[in-house]
Fold this protein.
Amino acid sequence: MKKVIIGITGSIASGKGTAAQYLKEKYGASTYRFSDMLGDMLDRLYLERSRDNFVKMSEITRATFGEDIMAKTMARDVEKDLNQIVIVEGVRRLADIEYLKKMAGFALVEIFADMKVRYERLKKRSEKADDQTKTFEEFKADHQRSTELSIIEVAEQAQKKIDNNGTLGELHQQLDGLISETRNSTTPNF
């Protein structure tokens, strides 16, 4: 079986992490997140894992070491991974896929859901320190940050789109179809 590398993009709380976790549990996929690099740096500096700090760390890191520094790091990690299915979650910028798209078996997938649905999911999951206290207006404002605006361009590059407005079972069904399709595809990118 060929190696399948799936990059997942999508707006805040669209279901990227839920999809990656499902693929890890059901198919034994390796999973990588761009935000894990940032979280590691925040932890090392004893800074809160708030959305604001993640954005600042991303902007500082890219401004200091180059727009593609995280993309280079991610590509190296993925390249070294011997697993047959590798998931790269949280693709936010075109630079993030610059090196990945050169790898055989890479495909970009967008997961999307309505803003109200995503807001309710964000409040329930409380992934970031400030998620539970976030108002809907603040949530909408988060979509105007550099890390979110760039997702629009990235999503235009996606070969597949997954609608996550439904149930968890419906999401899983679409992900199963995605894996089946990638395994049966004769072309590297679907």
